[in-house]
Design a protein that fits this description.
Layout lengths: L4 H6 L7 H25 L7 H4 L15 H29 L14 H11 L23 H24 L5 H21 L5 H21 L5 H30 L7 H18 L5 E10 L3 H9 L10 H4 L5 E7 L6 E6 L2 E11 L3 E5 L18 H4 L3 E12 L5 E11 L4 H28 L2
Antiparallel strand pairs: 1-7, 2-3, 3-4, 4-5, 5-6, 6-7
Helix pairs in contact: 2-4, 2-5, 6-7, 6-8, 7-8, 7-9, 7-10, 8-9, 11-14
Amino acid sequence: MTQNWWKWLFSWEGKVGRFQYLLAGTCLSAIKFAIDWSVARGFGETWTLWNYVFPRQESLFLGMGGNRPALYCTLWLIAIPFFWVGIALTLRRLRDVGKAAGWVFLFFVPLANLGLFLWLSLAPSSPIDLATGPMNSDTPSRIWTGTTVFGVFVSTVLGLLFVTLAARFFAEYGWGLFLGLPFLTGFVASWFLNKQGPHTGLETGTVSTLTVLLVGLVLIGFRYEGLLCLLMALPLALPFSIAGGHFARYILSARARSAAPPTFAACVALVPFMMLAQHMANPEPPVNAVTTSITIDAPVSVVWKNVVAFPPLQPPDEWIFRAGIAYPTAAQIVGSGPGAVRYCRFSTGDFVEPITVWDEDHLLAFDVSAQPPALRELSPWKITPPHVERNYMRSKHGQFRLMALGDHRTLLEGTTWYQDYFWPQAYWRAWSDVIVHRIHMRVLEHVKEQAEAH
């Protein structure tokens, strides 16, 4: 080790002998334990070596939203540079003993990581370099091998961990979840595929696509998410997963040309950093407005009475409501004038709408003080994902505007102002606007039917 020892620690190139690996690993473990012990003590907690062998439930991603989240979030942030160095040293040591890079997965498994460390600290160097042998374009390899399956497995596990991190701990449905995570799952699966030898773009795209679909199926199977929202996210996630797969394929081919590629672990670390950055920025989504109008062959006074309150609607025929999106079923009002409260009953519960403007035959405006879940997820089980539980599509205000077009014709406009806590906003607003518009049309067409029947 030279005076640039820190560069040596963080480097992904070259090999590491067993003595260097043992010395670096022991020293870094001692340093990390000392830091973790001091941080835990600052939070009034005890910390022992057993915390690494048998981690507490709340220290895992699946439990970080529970007890002492500040402590365990701090410990995870401190762990990031140690993870980087540990993975880099382990990969270089695997390269030195002539073993495949896939064995680095054991680095993240309690007890197994200790066995991996002891084995690599004792294993002699090997002249065979299986870990980074250059890709030979003249030697085709099968697509479905044990390494490929292992890569898909690793990718799926990472997907589940980062979904939990984003949705449960950070409570964010943003760039890292919908763009970074699909890119990562495709990247990881493709890395294991193309590490064995050259594969075509079609084969790479197939494995990347399968991986993101598998993550979705596992989320459904674990009762974590429903089919409807996953289908809505698929057009956004799929291209990024394929792009991640092709990016890994390019990196490995560049390495064969002795280029200096980005590293596997750097790409993995990018996703939680994206999630953390958005969480810390805490952006407030804009308030969007959707206006829908309809012409009714009835006097404005008749239309007004059916706007204020209307009888129950027939069950919907539209596929979007049959798929689980909440839809209006009836409306009633308690009182009259500003201060009255309108209750718009939906399939999932009631919207509570205090009246703010009561301009009879012209304008009925209201705030939304409470609202039910935006949908019922399509799932074999009754589930309430975090975005449904916290109402990440929130109505803020609404109004009905009536304009007389003559003695017996009325133009009725319905407007909803809402916030959508999903990113990228441009993509999810397209879905939200369609949903709000269909809800408007269901109400307006019912008002039209009732008013014209008089």
